[in-house]
Design brief:
This protein is of the alpha/beta class and 433 residues long. It contains 14 helices and 15 strands. The strands form 3 sheets. Strands 4-10-9-8-7-5-6 form a 7-stranded mixed β-sheet, with helices on both faces. The longest helix has 19 residues, at 336-354.
Length: 433
């Protein structure tokens, strides 16, 4: 039996008592609901420090983080290069004047991102979150096509701010309370079955299409929606379908991009989008995002007529730009693309030994690079809780919380993953039989 003390510890519990008195009650309700489903306490631990793949809570318990802080800490928590860049920038310039009088650091990041793009003449808009990047993309498509409609997909998570929420097919319960305020021209199509043929995909898209659609938005692999890999050829079919109808093709790479799946952009292994949305790993834990676009599509914004029609006080703020530049350096110089591919393939093969593949349905262990999902059905919440009690942080994914999502820092030591595999195997056997 595991000898670790029960969680949360007394110090975390005191913090959570304060949280329950000050935070919106919806979050406490969520914990109570999950406690009922998992049969175990779901009050969170309270983080106080994190380095690399290691997290320490308020009671001094140490955990291995297999979430990378929702994917943001791809280079590891508090990477020294990122911390140093932020400290240096903080000593020099905390805030500039956005698009009126920008900082030198913002311009350096714009230049850097443009050189990474799959087009020779890219343009970039910065934001603070993945949903900011998505909303820039949706606005760009509306300007470029003059059409208000958007084609999105079930299971897709694009953020919960209003423009992004309308396209969020992850769960209707996110949209329903606000439906009367959301874009009514969004169509949410089914995500194709893992074994869908090209003709199946074509038929699916024709059923979903209507003439008002000017944008198509897709995740190359569903993340929060259950780490669901599309069938071969889906992205290229979708790209061709959009192009034939003069719709802007948007790829949300907020989770999949920046080497999480082993490539700079997961989508460009198969297609060249019109717009790419980045976030999470870009700032290595500091809020910043980017929408990168083909210059011809971005030209729909026109030249500045005085006041910018899309701006924000902190868009392109110096601290975030400094963190992003350092994060991009680390991702490339430490060869984290290669590491994500090799270590991810090994981890997936080891998990398949614990949870064998079901040949007649979608794989129970799936994903690409260091973005892996393990289908464990109704046992998932209990399994996630048990893993946390034994020192490993994972997340449930899928609308019905049926998948254990594993997205560790790309810098994680293989020895920690070996410890996780042994722990997961024991917990899986106990809980899932």
């Amino acid at each position: 039996m595991d000898s670790r003390p029960p969680l949360p510890g007394p110090v975390s519990t005191r913090w959570i008592d304060t949280l329950a008195q000050t935070e919106c009650p919806a979050f406490t309700t969520r914990r109570a609901r999950r406690a009922e489903q998992s049969g175990a306490p779901w009050d969170p631990i309270v983080w106080t420090s994190a380095h690399g793949s290691e997290v320490r809570d308020a009671d001094g318990h140490i955990f291995t983080d297999l979430t990378a802080g929702f994917g943001a800490a791809a280079v590891g928590h508090t990477h020294p290069r990122v911390v140093s860049a932020v400290q240096d920038q903080a000593n020099r310039l905390l805030h500039a004047l956005g698009d009126v009088h920008p900082s030198d650091t913002k311009i350096k990041l714009l230049e850097r991102l443009a050189t990474l793009a799959p087009w020779p003449n890219a343009r970039v808009v910065l934001g603070l979150s993945g949903s900011d990047a998505v909303e820039v993309a949706l606005k760009t498509a509306a300007l470029a096509t003059g059409r208000p409609g958007v084609l999105a997909f079930e299971g897709a998570y694009h953020g919960l701010s209003y423009g992004a929420l309308a396209t969020c097919g992850y769960s209707a319960r996110f949209r329903d309370p606000f439906q009367h305020q959301l874009n009514p021209h969004v169509t949410i199509a089914p995500w194709p079955a893992f074994d869908a043929s090209p003709s199946d995909i074509e038929a699916l898209l024709k059923r979903a299409w209507n003439p008002k659609i000017g944008a198509v938005i897709v995740e190359p692999i569903l993340g929060r929606g259950g780490v669901r890999v599309p069938p071969p050829g889906f992205l290229s079919s979708l790209r061709a379908f959009a192009r034939q109808r003069d719709a802007v093709f948007i790829v949300d790479e907020v989770l999949t991009g920046l080497y999480r799946c082993g490539a700079l952009f997961q989508s460009t292994q198969e297609v060249t989008p019109d717009l790419i949305c980045l976030g999470k790993a870009l700032g290595a834990g500091v809020p910043i995002s980017a929408c990168i676009g083909n210059a011809s599509v971005m030209s729909a914004w026109g030249d500045s007529g005085g006041e910018a029609i899309h701006t924000g006080t902190f868009f392109g703020y110096p601290l975030g730009c400094a963190a992003a530049l350092a994060s991009l350096d680390v991702l490339q110089e430490e060869k984290l693309a290669e590491r994500a591919r090799s270590l991810g393939e090994w981890l997936k093969s080891e998990l398949e030994k614990i949870v064998p593949c079901a040949p007649t349905r979608d794989r129970l262990v799936r994903g690409t690079g260091m973005m892996i999902g393990v289908e464990t059905g109704r046992h998932t919440l209990t399994l996630v809780q048990t893993l946390m009690a034994r020192g490993f942080l994972t997340l449930p994914a899928g609308d019905s919380a049926s998948v254990v999502q594993i997205t560790p820092p790309l810098t994680i030591e293989q020895s920690r993953l070996e410890e996780f595999l042994a722990t997961f195997a024991g917990a899986f056997k106990e809980i899932c039989g």
